[in-house]
Amino acid sequence: MCRILLLFSCAHLLAAGVIQGVALEWASGKPLSRTIVHLKPVPGSGSGVRPMQTRAGRSGQFQFVSVPDGVYLLETQREGFLPAAYGQRRPTGYGTPFAVAKESSLFAELRLHRMGAITGTVLDENGVGIPRVEVIAYRAKLPLRVASRGVTDDRGVYRITGLELGKHWVRSAAHVLDDGTGLLPMFGPEAREPRDATAHEVHFDNDTADANIRPEPGVLSSLSGRIVCDRMSAVTVTLSSETTRKTTEGSCGGGYSFNGLAPAVYEIFTAYADGSGSGFTEISVNQNTQIGLQVITTSPAQFEVRSAATRAPLRTPVALAARRDDLSGAESFREVPQARATLGAGHWEFIAAGAPSQYVVSIQTDRGEPRRPWRAVRPPDAFPVYLEPWRGGERIRINLSEQAAQIRGVVTSGGRAAPGMPVYLWPEKEETRRMAGGARQALTDIDGRYQFNGLPPGTYRILATMDIREITAEAAEEAQASTLTLTEGQTLQQDLSVWIAP
Fold it and tell me: Which of 196, 242, 265, 500 has the fewest CB atoms in 10 Å of its CB?
């Protein structure tokens, strides 16, 4: 706590206006040229204050000149590295704010830690490495989400990079050997299911080694058939499972084919080249299978915003984002226009946010929530929606409660306001997280004030700290985050003290 006060107090004494420094690799101390450096003002710093960005030069040096008076955070961004920040205490934490005044200057040495990596060997029955096998890394939690991928070299050795800290599973994809023998997907070292797999702890600046996998021989299958359409057009066919995602081009009336498939549940997305029509099929494959695919010209999906209490239409603008719930975990959220949007058939995840006084109760079609009995774990932070492939276009209803709760307060450190301090809010139940759009994060303003709006009722953990970048149930427990319960429409004043990791 004293360190935070000291850094902030010293920053006020600094003369700023010019901010310069150097970006270095933590382990070697070598300059990291071309690193992006961000200068971000703390909320409330002033009307003339704006974010600034530059790129480090060949020797890792960077400079901001003519910086307006205000309070700022300084942070780097570089592929394959964790962000480094001025005043950062932990590699996974945020930096300390500092004040800028006329004719002052600051020099910052920012040292970047490399993200984690997992290495291992895919072995045959004799312990010899197998080349050209794809290996997938997942965060060790359900539902499975792909973290990154790699391919074995001529020795059967793989290295998967760019991993976040924490536990991961690794899994080989289906593979065909030179003699035609099929290898089934396998979690390391020899497990078919995640519950039996080894979870590998990933650390920064180091490789987690010996994450070996021994795939099991088995029969691989093919999936093929013809494409039926309601008009002539080029068609894209995408096959997705937890271990693979393949795409092929076809045409109406023609055929498609996918080979080397392990026994699994697969989803097939079909779409016209111009996006005006789509189709969707779910199928379990454990032998050579033929199935026809249908593509239908569809109208855009229409969104209705209604009151959850009265069912009356609301004219409230809603911020809406969606992503296809792809088994391979390949897609990310994208913004969706509220009135109408062209979305392909299949399973989707939606998140939305209304006015500060509202929260989302549900997002669904007229058929209600989709059922996927073969996939027991639902997305924890979004609403699942299934879109049928039909000509009329889907109607997606967003039900809002107009009795949202609110939390506000002041964050202090050593009895003084703590500006630029991250505040985390963790909804304890999945249902609450889904309605809240996931865990929340805010940044205190120049006076140490924070606010969360649009909250559903429920139990939350709240924490103010610069020593983490993501709130989880485990992080909240480690920090002994405060627990609070909100009722509908409640405004709660919750002042916080900064937590400093030991």
Answer: 196
